[in-house]
Amino acid sequence: MDSEKPFQRTSGSIIEDEKVQYIEDGDSIIEGSEGVTQKDLDTYRHVADRLPYSAWLVLIVEFAERWTYYGTTNVFNNYIRAGLPPGSTSGAVAAANRDVGIAGALGQGVQKAFAITTFNSFWVYITPFVGGIIADTMWGRYTTIIVFSVVCLAGHIILVGSATPASLANPQAAMGILVLAIVVMGLGAGAIKANVAPMIAEQYTGKLRKETLPSGEVVIKSPSLTIQSTYLWFYAGINFGSCGAISASFLARDHGYWAAYLVPTGIFCLVPVVLILGRKNYVMTPPRGSVILETLRVITFALGPRWSLNPIKTVQAIRAKDFWDPARPSSYSEGQMPAKMTWDDEFVGEVSRTLNACTVFLFFPFYWLCYSQINGNLATVAAGMKLNGTPNDLIQNLNPIAIIVMVPFFDYVVYPLLRRWRINFTPIKRIYAGFLVAGLAMVYSAVLQHFIYLRSPCHDNLPSECKDAAGNPDASNINVWVVSGPYILVALSEIFASITSIEYAFTKAPKRMKSVVMAFSQFQNALSSALNFALVAVNVENKFAWLFGSFAVTAWVTGTIFFIVFRDLDRREEALNRIGKGDRAGFVDER
């Protein structure tokens, strides 16, 4: 088989650029499969394989970690923004006032609450790089998760201490302890996040194969569809865990914040227990050495000859087919290869794949701007509506509940129907759909906020803090459950965009860099938080309608540009998924 032929299409096959295996005709066996031909691939229905037992164990780990994360952060807004309710020392609301009262503790106002919760989001999505680099180069994913679970547990213990009545008696001291807890928890949680996502997909080791169902139908068991299904259920596990915030809202309102934070701390103890008990069942990927340093050297070698004072020439040179040649050992004559070049052509191909995957994620900060509203500002929106005994920060749990309901529906109904109808709903298309739906959620939010201004006795003058002459909350005459719309729409957008981004990070990243690429994917949340920091001045309640509307337009425009830029990758999805599935993983320039 000639692996040097240029890109071309032959009967029943797609053949990639340099050094990627191609299929001579429809009867050739696809390399890396169990006897599947291209004709089989084009003829039979594709289905997902079953997930191994060890994948479900990893899912339990993610469930417990996410319960702990959301069970604390989802009540941060009220904890920081609102002061102690009358007569309370713990943040709890007196039983007689629970129909209208809101739990609170530190009394720092909307902007400080927004700044601190945004910093928390920024920090927890920066730290995955720490866990990713350590796992890929030193400890491996399993050991990294174990070590940083201890760090995360220590942070949660500090958080419980910040919320005790003795601590809340001095709000400034409590604020300092809270920030310390956020830093420690974020370090642990971020390092875990970078490694759990690739670890669950690595538990599946099946290959492309034919199988006859009990009905007699012959199907193709597809690893790529199995990974897609894996991450759908992985995301469902995340959102099962985030439902822990439901109990946190009631615990904070009825018993105080120390109790609200203590329960998820106890749940987190499941993480090291499940990891240790299931140790013999896991598929573990060993660390591969100093990958990051070598990656930077490869990029430096490739970029060196390409720089020009003319930026247009520089961009054209970077996009050229021979861009990676200066970094490839095979490009040098014997004895001419630089001494610092300690890698092979295969590793250059992995760097190319890594950068290609990472560029897809660069549009996501604008998507996460929309998502960030459900964890902060929409809780403030809800506080300006008729609560009727419902904690204002409870409604946001509709987001994970909607995801839990939608995941099996999409996995068992929507996606199989699309495949049966020969509709190729590729990752790039799914991500684009996610941007569009997120923008729709922001339009809903903007319209709702406009009506709150109209109906609130205080109009646009802080309707969430509006009070009557007796000092009791005086909300706009709109039922708080009307705000459920944006939470459900954002959940649908996550099915398309967020889950697919995790899937894309795993399937397109080379084995030696999966944790780092996953960390880069999650880093886009941090960039979104940085953008939110820049918007603190306009992130005030009387400007919410304009803010939400602006985010809607941003999501639609950015999503459309995203699809235009990556439509070529969309067409090449099937071929890209085959790279590295055979006995060798040759060099490929995927730009």
UniProtKB/TrEMBL annotation:
Membrane spanning stretches: 142-161, 173-192, 231-252, 258-278, 355-374, 394-418, 430-453, 487-506, 518-538, 544-566
The organism's place on the tree of life at top rank: Eukaryota
Key words, A-Z: Membrane, Transmembrane, Transmembrane helix
Keyword Cytoplasm in annotation: no
Alphabetical list of PROSITE patterns matching this protein: PTR2_1
Subcellular location: Membrane
SUPFAM superfamilies reported in the protein's UniProt record: MFS general substrate transporter
GO MF terms, alphabetically ordered: transmembrane transporter activity
GO cellular component labels: membrane
Membrane listed as a keyword: yes
Matches recorded under Pfam families: PTR2
Gene3D superfamilies (UniProt xref): MFS general substrate transporter like domains (1.20.1250.20)
Primary location class: membrane
GO terms under biological process: oligopeptide transport
UniProt membrane topology term: Multi-pass membrane protein
Family: Belongs to the major facilitator superfamily. Proton-dependent oligopeptide transporter (POT/PTR) (TC 2.A.17) family.
Protein name per its UniProtKB record: Uncharacterized protein
